[in-house]
């Protein structure tokens, strides 16, 4: 990358080892890091020549401690458009809420994976589409770990759940495929909770988050001195999960040599650590997850056919959210209920217009992105209900589609909320219901009264009370 394309990142961090790691990771994406050790230096740097060239800030909460949100607010007041990412060891939703209200663009719980950090930097600084509200900020909200929490009535989705629930009761391997954010990890936990191994060990290994040269060591373990840097003996994940369940996330990224060893281990039910002459017999259930159809990788020669066969006794495919738009209202209400229970937040409802907006978006980040969007909107909502105005980025992304939605809704349905998110008076809602019924049944008042479940004399009395012009039709 040329120097003109290089971007400058200010890293506020007083831990040298972590600073070197983050700087090296950021360099892969074309970032040059400017490291400062304290809050005062960070604020002073904003006014310098280098400070004016900054493209983003990463702040380790440990540096300012309890004053992290105050520092974020100060930095944001001086440079409002500058993305700020906060690193923290705390998984507290309250801290996430406070950081976001102070101006943080994203919130990363340490230890953060390289992929997660890179994704956060890319999303925070992309210029193609405003995505501030689309960050995965809900990673600190605990998920319910059962099948009842998997919301949706879409036929393909329900079929996948039924297949997973049946497989959960057995001991065979399961392969779960689906785009990122479709709920694969949640389904894994639901399956484990319903399985005969529920009380035994569960371990999730993210293949994509491990350096390629360390994958075999993580899975199979190694003996002391097996390779340079192997100062101690390490037990691998397969042996560690003996009697339990091992989840291999992003199995599509498993290196070829590790594929060979895993295929052999599953065939023999024995594990040989790196550098060892002996083997360990293991009884491990493998659940794998992939963002890509493994069958396609097999056809392309990038994945071993026998390993695919061994991993997919049952294959479950979770559909993307864009394929199940009818589930968005139920998912939205479910997420808002749980978000409202988080410290620093409160229960919120949502208007029909906002639901229409959410349903019109195709959600490339799937269910996880929907949850994150609702979380961010809830943080900044001042009313009692989320309205379309609480999702400005979505409105901008949808453009003409949003205008079409507004036109399509004119005269259809009943608006329950005012523009500021408060409920309309009952009298106004009742008047709209009666007007809608009169129009729907073309002025046939006997039919209107019957459908509304009231007497005809009562209907005429309400027409007079509400100031609605009725019809002389029978």
- The CATH architecture of the domain at 155-317 comes to 3-Layer(aba) Sandwich
Could you say which overall geometry the principal axes of the C-alpha atoms support? flat
CATH topology of the domain at 155-317: Rossmann fold
**What portion of residues is helical?**
40-55%
What is the distance, rounded to the nearest whole angstrom, between the alpha carbons of the first and last residues?
78 Å
Strand tally: 16
Task: Pick out the low-confidence regions.
Answer: 127-138, 407-412
- In CATH, what is the class of the domain at 155-317? Alpha Beta
Describe the structure.
This protein has 474 residues and is an alpha/beta fold. Among the domains are: 3-128, Rossmann fold, CATH 3.40.50.2300; 155-317, Rossmann fold, CATH 3.40.50.300; 426-466, Arc Repressor Mutant, subunit A, CATH 1.10.10. It contains 20 helices and 16 strands. It has helices at residues 16-28, 39-46, 68-78, 93-102, 114-125, 155-168, 184-193, 215-220, 237-240, 256-268, 294-299, 305-311, 328-339, 352-360, 366-380, 392-398, 400-409, 426-440, 445-452, 456-466, and strands at residues 7-12, 31-36, 54-60, 84-88, 106-109, 174-177, 202-206, 221-222, 234-235, 245-249, 270-271, 280-281, 285-290, 314-317, 349-350, 385-386. The N and C termini lie far apart (78 Å). Mean pLDDT is 84; it is low at 127-138 and 407-412.
Short summary:
This protein is of the alpha/beta class. It has helices at 16-28, 39-46, 68-78, 93-102, 114-125, 155-168, 184-193, 215-220, 237-240, 256-268, 294-299, 305-311, 328-339, 352-360, 366-380, 392-398, 400-409, 426-440, 445-452, 456-466; strands spanning 7-12, 31-36, 54-60, 84-88, 106-109, 174-177, 202-206, 221-222, 234-235, 245-249, 270-271, 280-281, 285-290, 314-317, 349-350, 385-386.
